[in-house]
Amino acid sequence: MNLLSSKDLNAKQMRDLFLRADKLQPISERLEPMSTELRGKTICNLFIDNSTRTRLSFELAAKRLGAEVLTFVPGASSISKGESLRDTVQNIEALGVDAFVVRHPDDGAPKAITHWTALPVINAADGNNEHPTQALLDCYSIREVVKTDDFSDVHVAIVGDIKHSRPAHSDTIAMTALGAKVTLVGPTELLPESPAWKNDQVTLTDDIGAINDADFVYMLRMQHERHGNSFDTGSYINAYGMTAERLKSLKPDVLIAHHGPMNRGIEISEDVADQFQEFITRHVTNGVTTRMAVLSMLLEES
Ligand code: CP
To answer: Measuring from atom 3 of ligand 1, which residue has the nearest CA?
Structure first.
């Protein structure tokens, strides 16, 4: 089995995965010794694009399950001499690995890899497409707060560059599958026209007032590398950023999150980022736990 998209797991499979994560949480959070569940297995972290949280949490997840980790460094690899992705994957498989965790700047690269290897492939974010393990850790973090995995009474808002955001796409699929209402808000030019992942529980709007009754608000990183710095960041924070002033319009118990990396002062002000630091970093801790559950499930089934 592969995990390429949030669509690859239905609601029951996600809920089962969260139960598996609950069992692994004491190991993930180092309250119990490392597991030997994946002893003898080797996970290849094939990251052709930059990452802090995802790459390091997959590395820790694999190690806390007793697996070895092979970290591919593109700048020091033969990709820099022109070797293709296909040859790279097939040579790494020949070295002896049991799964690939792939981040790539091109949409669909992890899926392409599944045509070249029979080993499990996990999408650790591809191009502007998806980031399914981010969605799992976001849902797991919401579940921890609402104390149920039925999100029918939960309203999640996601604000910013919806068009280019892989977490926004994967979150929308996963959160609505669990029952949530999802409101996607951003400037018109950063909203996708008719995304395939939109459904009846999803609203797309440029009206920032639509987040006022949300229970959770995820602020998206302004992806300067995709817009050629064409956005006036001074006006963006006032129009769509999360500031102490905007917070006053929201529900009193709203929780503000950010997938990271954050541009403080652009999509979220310093003071709001600091105020919700605990909830934001809780997602990062939960990233290790949920990725342990993903590796455990996929390698059990392979
Ligand atoms: N949230 C996230 O994917 O962060 P990284 O790019 O640092 O992995």
So the answer is: 54
Q: Is 194 helix (H, G, I), strand (E, B) or coil?
A: coil
Tokens of 249: 């319009």
CB 280 within 8 A of CB 126: no
Pairing of strands 202-205, 216-219: unpaired
Closest Cα partner for 38 from 284, 302, 283, 287? 302
Instruction: Please report the beta strands in the chain, taking only residues with DSSP state E, as ranges in sequence order.
Output: 42-47, 68-72, 99-104, 121-126, 155-159, 181-185, 202-205, 216-219, 255-258
> Percentage of the chain surpassing pLDDT 90?
91
Q: How far is the CA of 52 from the centre of ligand 1 (A)?
A: 6
CB of 281 shorter than 6 A to ligand 1: no
pLDDT tens per residue, range 135-150: 999 999 999 999 999 9
The Cα diameter of the chain in Å comes to: 57
- At 60-73, the pLDDT tens digits run 999 999 999 999 98
The rounded distance, in Å, linking the Cα atoms of 93 and 120 is 11
Cβ–Cβ < 8 Å for 189, 202: no
Write the CB contacts of 201 (distance below 8 Å, at least 6 apart in sequence). Answer: 176, 179, 180, 181, 182
Ligand 1 atom at minimal distance to the Cα of residue 260: 1
Say yes or no: CB of residue 114 within 6 Å of ligand 1: no
